[in-house]
Design goal:
The chain has 14 helices and 18 strands. With 443 residues, it is α/β, with parallel strands linked by helices. The chain folds into three domains: 125 residues, NAD(P)-binding Rossmann-like Domain (Rossmann fold, 3-Layer(aba) Sandwich); 170 residues, 2-Layer Sandwich (Dihydrodipicolinate Reductase, domain 2), CATH 3.30.360.10; 82 residues, 2-Layer Sandwich (Alpha-Beta Plaits). Strands 7, 8, 9, 10, 11, 12, 13, 14, 15, 16, 17 and 18 form a twelve-stranded mixed β-sheet that branches. Helix 7 packs across helix 8. The longest helix is centred in the last third of the chain and has 21 residues. It is elongated and about 80 Å long. The protein starts with 5 loop residues before the first strand and ends in a 5-residue tail after the last strand. It binds L-homoserine. L-homoserine binds next to helix 7.
Length: 443
Amino acid sequence: MNKPTVINIGLCGLGTVGQGVWKHIERSLPELKARFGVKLELYRAAVKDPKKPRSVEIPASKLTTDALAVATDPHVHIVCELIGGTTLARDVTLAALKAGKIVVSANKALLCEHGVEIFAAAKKHGGHFLFEASVAGGIPIIKALREGLIANRFTLIYGILNGTCNYILTRMVKEGAPYAEILADAKRLGYAEADEALDVQGWDAAHKASILAYLAHGVWVKTDQMIVDGISRITQTDLKMAAQLGYCIKLLAVITRDFATNEISVRVHPTLLPKDAVLANVNSVFNAISVTGDVVGTTTYIGRGAGQDATASAVISDIADAITLLTAGKAVVACAPSENQLRGGAEAPKLAPLGHIRSRYYLRMTVKDEPGVLAQIATITAESSVSIATVIQMAAERPDAASLILTTHQSDERAIRHTLTDIAKLDCVLEPPLLLRIGDFQE
Ligand code: HSE
């Protein structure tokens, strides 16, 4: 293998993350040279609008509007795909991999939707696809699962994977600030996706959960095979009620594997976590992941989950791996990271049916404040064998209505869905009920 003396980096996309990568690499070029023994060059960058003001100074000669030209430039060794989305980003990624290059990506949606195709292209053409920045911002969770925890089989992984939602929920609790104002701040700070619905409706966390499930269990679970609920219906009433019950509310991704039945479940939903749980105290833009393995037990990772610098930190860690690949030929276990989990020819896990996914539940209903309402609701829960644990009634925000909050004992997703469907049909129920899960995790 010819060891290059200069390694050229091409950036496709110079938004929040791209500018962060440029800034931090430029600043540490001498250290990187000293550590890796090669000169690193920020060679070219593709942007939509070369004239747009940016926080980093880039000579005009290095800018182009042609991302595919950067991806296939024979002088470029490492292509950073920081465009986002799944159209041009996919074309750029596949073109670079077909040219045998190393692609570094923060694009969780792309990986979740096209991971099979991307890894196949990397394998076929001798390229590599590195994606540390795709999950949990600056936390090196991909490396942890792929390398540090390789001895383990994972029974439970759960975490706060969306910085924007955590930032919103934290400020709603601490300041009682209006949702729209907090979301606008999250966008200004570079936390939120261009399409904020990806954050607040849970899809961004679902993409990340899919990647973690792949790393841990070797199978791709698509978002339409998951339970995905976002935070947009959480109100001050829910946050206060959760606090009164001894919980706080976090948007969690939860990945379980039952090795007895060989079933996995992957889901994303707002969850009531006991106030003293470690993740309950992870606030603002921070992410956290709890990983339980059969050898190591539980390990927990906390750090900034979004924003320019945290994400740039993860991208640069992949660039460092790419340099090692180019200079020392060190294999990064990136293309089929978890085939080794399917030990001794074991079969790939199956998706757990809804009836096997168990939890306690929190249900908030806006109901007419009149006799017999509670009895009608209790009849429905009894018919679905859902056992009520607590009932609280309080004034609702709208007149002539009450908020009725139930918590249940352990039940399952199938039973609770029947319950919800039937409750929503009652004349005395004025809005679709809100369902939250209660997270008492057995680590
Ligand atoms: N919008 C994402 C978040 C960015 O808020 O977590 C990091 O992936």
